[in-house]
Amino acid sequence: MKKMMSIIRNLFSRNISFTAYADNYSQIAATGKVHRFAKLINTSLGEHSYIGVGSWATCCRIGPFCSIGANTNIGLTQHTLDTISTSPIFQLKRNATGVSWTERDYSPNILDTPETILEADVWVGSNAIIMPGLTLHVGCVIGAGSVVTHDVPPFAIVAGVPARILRYRFPAEIIERLMEIKWWDLPDEEITRVIDIFHKPNPTTDDLNKFFPQKGL
Q1: pLDDT for res 10
Q2: 79 catalytic, yes or no?
Q3: Within 13 Å, how many C-alpha atoms sit on residue 205's CB side?
Q4: Which residue in the list 48, 79, 137, 150 is annotated as catalytic?
């Protein structure tokens, strides 16, 4: 019944593709976008964020302005490792095999998966895998095909298997100023009013201060 209700909700939603799925535990912001064949389980998607084609997110909290590429997997569910078989057919009454061999669940519920957090303005490249329980901090970038096993600092660019920090998007003083400004928390009308700063490559602190005056000055 819950699955049917989710399907019906998706049919009438403008921001969830007809072929995507978001369960009843998931919340999609009015300006969020879930593209075709994506699947959200117990996941919240923030304002102006999108999840690309074929991507899965399980027990995630995704902030505003996040860009999730195609075929990513965020917050993987886990199989038991200490029993004879890892197959969920022995552990879960409802499982991916479509066959029930047990009258009760022996493994933790999928909703108990550790929460994975993507803060604001995070970009996850296509085919990346983000392990559960991690935090991807503001402005970080995950390279396509990477496997992320640790938290990622603000504005870091990581890539590889496992993912490692390659560099940071901006110098330390720019990152510090951006963390003070927190533009991602501003109302849309305030952001669009200073849209020119978002078109400028390699902004300086003077550029930022011009559009976002420091308090008390």
Answers
A1: 56
A2: yes
A3: 10
A4: 79
- The number of C-alpha atoms within 13 Å of 194 and in the hemisphere containing its C-beta is 15
Cβ atoms of residues 143 and 162 within 8 Å: no
Domains and CATH numbers, the chain: 2-78+113-169 (2.160.10.10), 171-217 (no CATH)
Residue with tokens 């569910």: 77
137 touches 119 (CB < 8 A): yes
Per-residue pLDDT tens digits for 160-169 = 999 999 999 9
Tell me the pLDDT tens digit for each residue of 45-104.
999 999 999 999 999 999 999 999 999 999 987 777 778 888 888 888 877 788 889 888
- By the 8 A CB rule, do 35 and 50 touch? yes
Among the listed ranges 11-20, 67-76, 138-147, which one has the minimum average pLDDT value? 11-20
